[in-house]
Amino acid sequence: MSVHATLAASHPQTRNTSTDALDKTPDPDGYVVFDRVQKSYDGVSLVIKDLNLSVSKGEFLTMLGPSGSGKTTCLMMLAGFEIATHGEIRLSGRDINLVPPHKRGIGMVFQSYALFPHMTVAENLSFPLEVRGIAKSQREAQVKRALDMVKMGSFADRRPAQLSGGQQQRIALARALVFDPALVLMDEPLGALDKHLREHMQLEIKSLHERIGITVVYVTHDQGEALTMSDRIAVFNDGKIQQLAPPSEVYEKPQNSFVAQFIGANNSLRGVVEQIANGRANVRLSSGELIDATAVGVSEKGQPTSVSIRPERVEFKPDLIPQGANSIDAEVITTVYMGDILHCRLRAAGSDNFVVKMRNTLGQARLSPGDRIKIGWHPEDAHALDPA
Fold first, then answer.
1. Is the dihedral angle over the CA atoms 300, 306, 307, 308 positive or is it negative?
2. Is the dihedral of CA 201, 206, 211, 212 positive or negative?
3. Region (Disordered): which ranges (predicted)?
């Protein structure tokens, strides 16, 4: 796919993002397809367990998960540095399991940048083109174009040691794009940058993706990074995808307790289902309160559950607690000033770590340790999941 293709021509297709879809045969028309893929290093234990995943052409898909969850192994199999123990990996309809890495037409960006220190920036970009036997005049044109893409055209004659970390990362990205790859893989590419530069580069990469429409598979353990950049997120744990959905859905509608706890801040309250109907569950919390929640990981009366509530969805002002909301008593333990928000830790519903986040706005009521308050939230903002 040419780096001058437009994103509109290859916009990701809408597909079923429910947990049931994760166990089904992947879309055969996907641009990148993992079909019942398994990976074992010792022939006994599986690092990747029956992975089914389709990536659309032009999509930015992020594989997100903790260390050891299997996300990097999947990326290495797609790149060709690891071979699947079972199943097929297809690129544009072609089985690439046994295709050598240099013949897959895939660009790679690593956390370490992997730039040759003895070469200039232009020479670093020219090298993969030389390996492919491209004529010098064409190499020069492609190097210039790739550097212009990442706004580094004036740095062609510098060496990597003369560049900042962010500039080196831009060059590493340009080198991955210089030969018009079919696909670009990024493995924790921003992990070595400081917070401010990392956030800036997230937006730069997202903007570049939108401009040129390249297909990207991105690996990270940074939840904020995944939410900021992705068309869809595949949340990994224990060698399996726990949820596959757009960022807003992964955050707003977690499908299990792992996703709820791993993505962003979360309050988790233990309880038992007393009644369930029409997608709604009445849950008796371990502290005795009865609340309503959206039934996600439960299906019958008597099931233990963990109810997930995002801190920013909890209200403490009486006039702002919506009608029909769950409402419980709470006591303020600590309040922490964090600039744009106020972070309050409460004793509520049997937990000493119930968190409420409040916007730091003019006239915002202040809470002090020892204050006794009522808190409330919409039943739609509470999700009755599998036990944590």
1. negative
2. positive
3. 1-24
